[in-house]
Specification:
The protein has one domain: Histone, subunit A (Orthogonal Bundle). Helix content is 68%, strand content 3%. The longest helix is centred in the N-terminal third of the chain and has 28 residues. The model has no long low-confidence stretch (mean pLDDT 89).
């Protein structure tokens, strides 16, 4: 992530949940987003196969009501427009699907993924405040707790 991208995410986390994050946090964040997008795609692939299709469509992803709301909230944030190009790079899908995924993705799904990543980002920031309302600079154990919660739900 470029220095410009780092400052954008620092601002995003400050606006989203009054959190101060550092470069190590951004590595954790990047891993989190990619893991959760992958998890959503795995379920989307299963749904597409069950429906006899060979392309994963955006409606195949298990986007819950809460995640959908955070996606909408993310779009309304001032930082969303500045983060979208960075999120596009973070969730760039390889030409060949990653291990475990053997289907292609629709163009609409590829266009939606940065917004989904933004919604996941906002949900993560809010989760830190739910886990510890006084947290300002999440530490490793808080990141791990947040990840475990998301792993249970997505």
């Amino acid at each position: 992530m470029t220095p410009m991208g780092i400052s954008e995410f620092e601002r995003f986390f400050r606006e989203a949940a009054s959190l101060d994050i550092d470069k190590d946090d951004l590595r954790r964040y990047n891993d989190f987003v990619n893991r959760k997008i992958y998890d959503l795609l795995v379920i989307g692939q299963a749904k597409a196969k069950a429906n006899g299709r060979d392309v994963i469509e955006d409606w195949d992803l298990p986007v819950t009501k809460g995640l959908q709301e955070t996606i909408h909230d993310f779009r309304r944030m001032d930082e969303a427009a500045q983060l979208r190009p960075i999120l596009e790079q973070i969730v760039t899908l390889p030409e060949l699907p990653p291990p475990g995924l053997n289907m292609t993705y629709s163009e609409e799904l590829e266009r939606r993924l940065p917004g989904i990543a933004g919604g996941l980002s906002l949900a993560l920031a809010r989760a830190f405040k739910i886990l510890d309302p006084n947290v300002e600079n999440p530490q490793t154990k808080q990141w791990e707790r947040a990840f475990r919660i998301f792993d249970l739900l997505l």
